[in-house]
Amino acid sequence: MDVNGITSAANVTQGTTTKGTLGKDDFLKLLTTQLQNQDPLNPLDATAFTAQLAQFSSLESLQDIDSQMKEMVAGQNSMQAAIATGMIGKKVKAGNGDISLKVSAEINYNLSRDAAKVKISILDTAGTLLREVDLTKQPSGAGSFVWDGKDSNGKVLPDGMYKCTVQAFDASGNPIAATQSSGGTVTGVSIENNTVYLVLDGNRKVPMSGVTEVSGG
Questions:
Q1: Looking at the structure, do residues 51 and 95 belong to the same domain, yes or no?
Q2: In terms of pLDDT, which residue wins out, 179 or 83?
Q3: Residue 82's CB: how many other CB atoms inside 10 A?
């Protein structure tokens, strides 16, 4: 019997390798099987046995670490969710280009310096341009624009999700760094894939980590 190979022990151990992963219980069964099936005239080498015990110890330690990490993540998510719950009813600004239209929508941005022109583009979720708005002489820092929900032809668009981009330029037409965000009222909280999300206006989710500002409802 090949005492150095775990797989040879697995061949004589029933029901331990069907899961596709080797747990510490499976590992212990394999070692036990090796000892039971070893050749009396050629017993298991002490060095190989020690090495396999070391592998078992490492496997158990890694599983313990993995379990502790999962507990830490769960605890952190619970803490964030508790904080997020306290934000229900408050208005927030989130750093992304999604906007939720309910008759109108507020688009927030921040300019690195004074701008001669700020161009705001409104698009549908497929990326089709619906409207462009030019704002002149905008100061550095935080600014906002309230979209009335109309396209470039003056047609009132249905409530729902849209996207926007914000571009800024100086008097010479050179681009100016501009970051954008959209606002909304927190109506709920959800946890998905170990990420805490705020539900804005009942129909839009933004990660809590993306929130840039919180104000009273």
A1: no
A2: 179
A3: 11
